[in-house]
Design brief:
By secondary structure, the chain is of the alpha+beta class. It has one domain: Ubiquitin-like (UB roll), CATH 3.10.20. It contains 3 helices and 5 strands. The protein starts with 16 loop residues before the first strand and ends with a helix.
Length: 105
């Protein structure tokens, strides 16, 4: 692949490429997709380009993040970012903690 004077890989239109990961995990199955995308790609665009929604039926995009921190879908990605698609919570963590503490008494 061609590179610019800074050593960045470039496509035919000369836009620098970055490498990102898109991940989704279920209890029994995890999926990690590595992508090379153009600089300026958003979280939503990376998820769409990965095809992960088609491969894992039932994925919702209500909650996504980068390295464990929730971000909006229009967040611009940087080289090396890991886009995480979060599953909805089954139970409220605070309520679950209260329930466990109540059973210990």
């Amino acid at each position: 692949m061609a590179q610019n004077s800074d050593g960045w890989p470039v496509t035919g239109d000369r836009n620098p490429q970055i490498q990102v990961e898109v991940v989704y995990a279920l209890r029994e199955k995890q999926l990690l997709i590595v992508l090379n995308v153009e600089e300026g790609t958003t979280v939503r665009q990376a998820i769409e380009r990965s095809g992960i929604v088609q491969r894992m039926p039932g994925i919702g995009l209500a909650s996504v993040g980068l390295f464990g921190r929730a971000v909006p879908l229009d967040t611009l990605l940087k080289d090396g970012d890991r886009v995480e698609i979060y599953r909805p919570l089954i139970a409220d963590p605070k309520q679950a903690r209260r329930d466990r503490a109540g059973r210990r008494r």
